[in-house]
Design a protein that fits this description.
This protein is an all-alpha fold. The protein has 3 domains: about 1-50; about 50-130 and about 185-265, AhpD-like, CATH 1.20.1290.10; about 140-175. Helices cover about 75% and strands about 0% of the residues. The chain has 15 helices and no strands. It has helices spanning about 1-15, 25, 35-45, 55-70, 75-85, 90-105, 105-125, 140-150, 150-160, 165-180, 190-200, 205-220, 225-235, 240-255, 260-265. α4 crosses α11 (about 190-200), α6 (about 90-105) packs antiparallel against α7 and α11 runs antiparallel to α12 (about 205-220). The longest helix is centred in the last third of the chain and has 19 residues, at about 240-255. It is globular, with a radius of gyration of 19 Å.
């Protein structure tokens, strides 16, 4: 079993790195060879090799987690390059960083874009920077987008802001859904996958994570994919955050099976 998962992990690492000799093993050989072994055998040989998510979506989720956490630029650059290796388009990666400005903040989004720029420069990739077409009516687009993605859960968030921060609620509608979600370059399912991954990694926004777990399922994500991205977070954000998110996913799936549970909250 150990030999099998080691071989699987090495093969996956080689695919992501574009090299038959993944650097992590040699880089840690003189100081933490056991950690390198766990990374190969467990992280890549078991978790990332799972079939809940295809590899391009796994890489998108990993990039979202690392960008949201911040301060992990070497690992972020490795996984940005890995995302390119498995077929993600450079524009998707830039758009993911733009999207994360909403959920992880502009500093994290900017640092993510700078990391992507370095990866693209090493590969001689030029990104299409053609501006997105303007939205004719941010309010109307935002209301429609909010209802399409978050449904009643998003409207409850706005209701909760009405008497304390109405301008913040307006920004959610007009900027988040009226501009960011309306942009081309990243499919809606990928947007919600990245959102869930980022919020799981941050670990401090469970009410918002609940809303976006529902949203992920609303736009075509499956329960298996949802659990898959939560499980993957154990590798990149730690087991406590992954366990907390898994318990929340259990509640979300129960609410969808019995909507009266949601109404009781």
């Amino acid at each position: 079993m150990n030999a099998d998962r080691h071989a699987t992990g090495l093969a996956l690492l080689a695919r992501l790195s574009g090299s038959p000799r993944p650097a992590i093993v040699e880089a840690l050989a003189d100081v933490a060879p056991a950690l390198a072994g766990f990374a190969v055998d467990f992280a890549y040989g078991e978790v990332l090799a799972g079939d809940a998510l295809d590899l391009p979506r796994r890489q998108l989720a990993t990039v979202a987690m690392l960008a949201a956490l911040g301060g992990l630029e070497p690992q972020l650059e490795f996984h940005l390059a890995g995302a390119l290796e498995v077929g993600r388009d450079p524009r998707e990666l830039v758009e993911l960083m733009t999207h994360l400005a909403v959920y992880a903040g502009f500093p994290a989004a900017l640092n993510g874009v700078f990391a992507a720029r370095r990866v693209f420069a090493r590969r001689g990739i030029a990104v299409d920077t053609t501006p997105a077409p303007p939205v004719a009516d941010r309010r109307a687009e935002g209301v429609a987008g909010l209802r399409r993605v978050d449904g009643v859960h998003g409207e409850r968030v706005l209701d909760g802001l009405a008497d304390i921060a109405p301008d913040l609620g307006r920004h959610v509608v007009e900027f988040v859904f009226g501009e960011i979600y309306a942009r081309p370059g990243l499919a809606l399912l990928e947007r919600e996958l990245g959102t869930v991954a980022a919020l799981v990694a941050l670990g401090n926004a469970m009410p918002q994570l609940r809303v976006h777990m529902h949203a992920f399922l609303n736009v075509g994500g499956t329960p298996a994919q949802l659990v898959g991205v939560v499980t993957q977070a154990a590798v990149y954000a730690g087991f406590p955050r992954a366990i907390g998110a898994a318990l929340l996913a259990q509640e979300v799936l129960a609410e969808r099976a019995d909507p009266t549970l949601s109404g009781a909250r």
